[in-house]
Amino acid sequence: MAVLSLMESGSSIYENKYVGIENYIAVFNSPYFYNALLNTFIWTVGNLVLTAILGLVGALAANELEGKLKRILMVLIMIPWFMPWGATAMIWKHLWTTPYGIFGWLAFISGLIKEGQAILTSLPSAFLAPMITETWKIYPLGLLMFYAGLRQIPKEIYESAQIDGGGVFLIFRYITIPLLKPIIITFILLNLMWIMGSFAIMFILTGGAPAYATELYSLLIYRKVFLEIKYYEGAALSMILFVILFTIGVLTIYFYKKEVFR
Amino acid sequence: MGKEEKKITRRDYLKYTGAAIGGLAVGGALGYVLKPSEVIKETVTAPGVEKTVTTTLKETITKTLTAAVTPTYSAYHPPKKVELYWLVRDYNEAEAKEFLKGFYEKYPNIRIGKLEPQTWKGLYEKLVTLLSSRTGPDVCEGYSPRWIAPFYKRGYLYRLNEFFELLPDETIPDVCPGKKGFFEKAIEAVTMADGTLAGLPNRMDGYMLYWNVKLFEEAGLPKRPPKTWDEFRDFAKNLCKDDPATGKRVRWGAGAYYTPAEEIINHFLGGKVWGDGGDFISSDFKECLATSSEVIEAYKFFIDMHLKDDAWWPPMTTATYQDFAAALAQGIIGMTFAPSVTLVDALTKLGLAWDDWGLSDPPAGRVARYTAMSGNVWAISSFCKEPRAAWELIVYMAEPKRMAALTVTQVAHRDALKVPKYERLKDDPLKKDGYYGSIPLINSKSPLYKIASYYDIVTLYTKAFEACWEGANVEEKLRFVKAEGDKILKKEFGE
User: Fold this and answer.
1) Span B255-263, average pLDDT
2) Contact criterion met (CB < 8 Å) for B314 and A206
3) Contact yes or no for B134 and A117 at CB 8 A
């Protein structure tokens, strides 16, 4: 990939010629690159926040349940995670379609969508709808991780805090969150990498429409390689993404290491 | 005075002698020809078999004379076994397997080592992956004519000019198609700007206008499709209907579905731009014409139909095929554009009454009437080790009867239209000069279809259209398209 990113087609398509950083220059000079980066940043932060909130709330709720109901609920909660990405995207695309899908119809009758508009063709809904879909798909992993973390926290700590007069929010802020920190950091790191490389949901729901407004970095790579047949530029884009993720990963692990082994 | 003696000159002598010899020769020949009992023995020896065949001189002369005017095709039989990889369209698979039995009998040394069916969806990406990695296929009949230039210019496809010249002018039944029988537009569509023939047309179709006859009647419109784009817009406005209780629009005069995204040019934008005398890139391939008056006018025309008239089905840009088909079934769309194959197939599968829909040439612009091309093309990969063997497969399958069996509706060869399944079309008003559909209107010469960066350019135009669909300024978006388009063309063609 790294070698390919420094090449271009020679006299024949099957002969590569070395062109140095020309592909990288083309990428950095392209407005689509910055558009895709910005979209991916918003997409990643939005999904991380939503997934974390849903996952944590779900884990806290699951932690309070006991017995058969808990086991049934945990299985049901995991269903989105087990569903294939393509099938998930296709089903949600129908749900979002205006006015035939249920969410599209609800948005229409509630006045959120004007007549003649469609959720998947108009901003900001064309960005929010896939984000909600992605969150629905991946939040079970966060829930499981947080739930596992919560189960590790000894009950005696909570009991002591309650005896000392700590309320729900204080306990959550000063006991639960600090003790869950390693899990939270691992959650952020893993999901960051997955969400930044996310492809299926946005590809199937909007394909980057309208007018590249929802084009993520992964969709840009796909477009360059498979539609425009510019695999050298696609390789350069992939290398840039690798460097970004690698840097984030190294910094996060460093931070995590610092926090855990303090 | 006495009688003059008649002298026989040398000239006379030669004249009479020549006439006598000629008469004898003709008489002799006639005698031999007409005399049935004269035979010529010929021994034909096949391996292990000795057979004596007797032929009359009459038959031999007849055979010799007719051979001079009978078309011939010299098939290539490889000396050693050859295996080919054929990526076949999924709907052709059953017929392909059936025809391969006859192919193997005729070509015992050519075998299809891998016969892989592929749906239309994902075909382009699959071909890009396989061809760029040189892992196949050797031959495929599923290429869209719009992919031929991008693939050929990247060196993926084999030049077929020399092979094409091997075909006779006229079809040899059960052997091969004749060169002259291919629709000219179909051949133009697969001919590059430098004259290279990069594919052999299999199916060729023009995008056509579909109009709902019942809705036209309900709206009080004439029982005919719109003739011009202005009339198309008027008809569309008249076809719109609002719910009397809520005042919300429940029917739109026009609508379309397109995917991959670039087909917006092929569905309707191209027809308007070309019809008004414009194009999307210049004929010398150096300039993107996004800011030309014809393109700006075309954009404004369709955008205004959506934003001002509310006469265009709104969810066009991201609707699924099922949404579109459902909208047609529910009578929500009055007119649409599609290749004749696509919608016929869709409507049939939906169980819609085909009589409810009329099929016509698209509307005419100020200058001309044009439409975009759709279809399937045979092509051989440039890395195919046995291109001549691959060509024999194509020739066998492109024989008109087999071509008709392998294609759904619109074949690319006149002789293929003579098969019984097209009998129903013989009185069809759209059948002219032996074709069905809008083939003569195909703008197969547009420079847009001859460049490697086809997808780059049309995606720019499509994305700009999508932005304008949401209310963006048309001129501003098209200025961006021009700036980016010029860069792309400069990269491909230089200054």
Assistant:
1) 70
2) no
3) no
The nearest alpha carbon in chain B to A122 belongs to B470
CATH of B207-373+447-493, one of 3.40.190.10, 1.10.10.10, 3.90.1860.10, 3.40.50.300: 3.40.190.10
How many other C-beta atoms can be found within 10 angstroms of the C-beta atom of residue B333?
25
Lowest mean pLDDT among A66-70, B159-163, B348-352: B348-352
pLDDT tier at A74, thresholds 50, 70, 90: confident
Question: In the CATH scheme, what is the homologous superfamily, with its name and number, of domain B82-205+374-441?
Answer: Periplasmic binding protein-like II (3.40.190.10)
Distance CA(B31)–CA(B365), nearest Å, equals 68
- How many CA atoms lie less than 13 Å away from B39 in the CB half-sphere? 8
Residues whose CB falls within 8 Å of the CB of residue B80, separated by 6 or more in sequence, listed in order: B109
Which residue from B minimizes the CA distance to A119?
B315
Residue A214, domain member (yes or no): yes
Name every residue in B having a CB less than 8 A away from some CB of A: 124-125, 128-129, 132, 134, 150, 154-156, 248-249, 260-261, 306, 310, 314-315, 317-320, 322-323, 326, 383, 453, 455-456, 459, 463-464, 466-467, 469-470, 472, 477
Q: What is the pTM of this model?
A: 0.77
User: What is the length of chain B?
Assistant: 495
Could A116 and B154 be called an inter-chain contact, meaning their C-beta atoms sit closer than 8 Å?
no
3-state helix, strand, coil in chain B (%, to 5): 45, 20, 35
Query: Is A240 a member of any domain?
Result: no
Interface predicted TM-score (ipTM): 0.70
Name the minimum distance, in Å, from the CA of A98 to any CA of chain B: 8
Assess A143–B contact: CB distance below 8 Å, yes or no: no
Of the candidates A209, A223, A228, which has its C-beta nearest B318's C-beta? Answer: A209
Domain that holds residue A148: 31-233
Residues B255, B212: Cα–Cα separation, whole Å: 12
Best to test chain A binding among B123, B309, B317 (most A CBs inside 10 Å): B317
Q: Is residue A132 part of a domain?
A: yes
Question: Are A116 and B467 a contacting pair at CB < 8 A?
Answer: no
In a domain, A18, yes or no: no
Tell me what pLDDT residue B395 has.
Answer: 95
Name every residue whose Cβ is closer than 8 Å to that of residue A25 and which is 6 or more positions away in sequence.
none
In B, which residues are within 8 Å of A123 by CB distance? 470
The partner residue sitting opposite A98, judged by closest CB among B156, B315, B317, is B315
Q: Indicate yes or no: CB of A228 within 8 angstroms of CB of B317.
A: no
Residue B63 burial (10 A CB sphere; 0-12, 13-18, 19+): exposed
* pLDDT at B405 > cutoff 90: no
| A185: CATH | 1.10.3720.10
Looking at chain B, the domain(s) classified CATH 3.40.190.10 span: 82-205+374-441, 207-373+447-493
Total domains in the fold of chain A: 1
Q: For the segment B279-318, what is each residue's pLDDT rounded down to a tens digit?
A: 999 999 999 999 999 999 999 999 999 999 999 988 776 6
Q: Is A252 on the interface with B (CB under 8 A)?
A: no
Distance from CA of A261 to the nearest CA of B (A): 47
